[in-house]
Write a structure and sequence with these properties.
Layout lengths: L11 H6 L1 H16 L8 H20 L8 H28 L1 H6 L6 H27 L11 H25 L2 H15 L7 H5 L4 H9 L1 H11 L9 H25 L3 H4 L1
Helix pairs in contact: 2-6, 3-4, 3-6, 4-6, 4-7, 4-8, 4-11, 6-7, 7-8, 7-11, 7-12, 11-12
């Protein structure tokens, strides 16, 4: 048995003891994002903005509802948190295999690897949120006081990304198909979430089973709340948001448990 596999799952004290390594990994992820790039931090804005431009064309052709908001605001308000979620989930899911040499050489709390890209992505999210705020103000929209719940929404989004990312990372060590399947699944997930389409229209679907299935998607309530908080309480589906918040806690708990149960074999399998 290698030194890496001889340890039992860590606790909070052990994670705290390795906090400097964790912050190093977070800072490394931040630097890697912009190292030797022409546009640097602008990529944090370009990704959601360019997708928003594509959605403008699709929305116009398909006559999609924007819930009374200007189209750029409607889509950018969803794409900013979604882009963070997608990048965080993909980064967490690939983290163990991408750091295979580190896994086999020294022991440290393995959770720091998938957690680092989730935390590092908050830098991009902050930059993109500032641009979103500029766009909102440019359209003469005064955000409602409910924008103060954004930290809670971001926390729930990060917890959801980390929970699923922990499961994906553990599976990716054993089944390398995950590396190829995860980006595709995340892309599919976007179209199953109210990023392109309006959650208000989904709530009026005739099929109760489909409405329930969509509500159980944790990103539905969160994306709707990110958008709706700009306008006011009446624009938020509080039931869907409550489901998303509860689901975020459950997913994170399941992800942690799954990760801890499988981490002993990481060094041998990677």
């Amino acid at each position: 048995m290698t030194h890496a596999t001889a340890h039992t799952p860590f606790g909070g004290k052990e994670l705290w003891a390795y906090r400097e390594l964790f912050w190093f990994l977070v800072w490394r992820d931040v630097k890697v994002r912009y190292k030797q790039t022409l546009f640097g931090a602008a990529w944090a804005v370009l990704q959601p903005v360019m997708t928003m431009v594509v959605f403008l064309f699709i929305g116009k052709l398909a006559a999609l509802s924007t819930e009374g908001l200007p189209a750029p605001v409607f889509w950018l308000a969803a794409l900013v948190p979604w882009t963070y979620f997608a990048n965080a989930l993909n980064g967490a899911g690939q983290s163990l295999v991408a750091n295979s040499q580190l896994l086999t050489k020294v022991w440290f709390p393995r959770i720091t690897l998938p957690a680092a890209p989730v935390l590092a992505g908050l830098v991009d999210l902050c930059i993109a949120t500032l641009v979103l705020l500029v766009v909102i103000l440019a359209y003469g929209i005064v955000p409602s006081p409910l924008v103060l719940i954004w930290p809670l929404l971001v926390l729930a989004t990060a917890a959801t990304a980390l929970g699923f990312g922990l499961i994906a990372a553990a599976l990716n060590v054993r089944y390398r198909d995950v590396k190829y399947a995860l980006p595709f699944l995340v892309q599919f997930w976007m179209f199953a979430s109210p990023v392109l389409w309006s959650w208000d229209e989904a709530r009026n679907l005739e099929s109760p089973a489909l409405r329930v299935a969509l509500t159980l998607n944790p990103m539905c309530g969160l994306i709707d709340a990110f958008r709706g908080s700009l306008v006011g309480a009446g624009s938020i589906d509080w039931t869907a948001l409550a489901v998303s918040l509860v689901t975020a806690v459950i997913v994170l708990a399941v992800g942690l448990r799954w990760f801890h149960r499988t981490e002993r074999a990481f060094a041998d399998l990677v």
